[in-house]
Design goal:
The protein has 97 residues and is mostly beta strands. The chain has strands at 15-20, 26-33, 39-47, 52-53, 57-63, 67-73, 79-84, 91-95. Strands 1, 2, 3, 4 and 5 form a five-stranded antiparallel beta sheet that branches. It has a three-stranded antiparallel beta sheet with strand order 6-7-8, with no helix packed on it.
Length: 97
Amino acid sequence: MSNGATPSTWAHPDVSRVASLPNGDFWAIWKQQTPTFDAVVYASRYRVNSNQWDAPELLGGVSLGNSKPEIAVDGLGRATVVWADANDEHIYFTRNE
């Protein structure tokens, strides 16, 4: 992020979801507005063994319309995140292995 801003200096998240993993860890995802009013989707994993959060990871990039993020986790602990653009014209996804 070229402006040096970090998620903690931006507006509060307005959409968030949580999904648990079989080992007790869980993923949190959220949509957040940047200082330039773009919308970004972030994910972070909480690791129960270390009692710590991973650094937030930007998913997909910065866009004016990232919205409606959702998350699901399968029985092997793989997370899939989907989200749409503002007009619901495009659907995006990412999956961790």
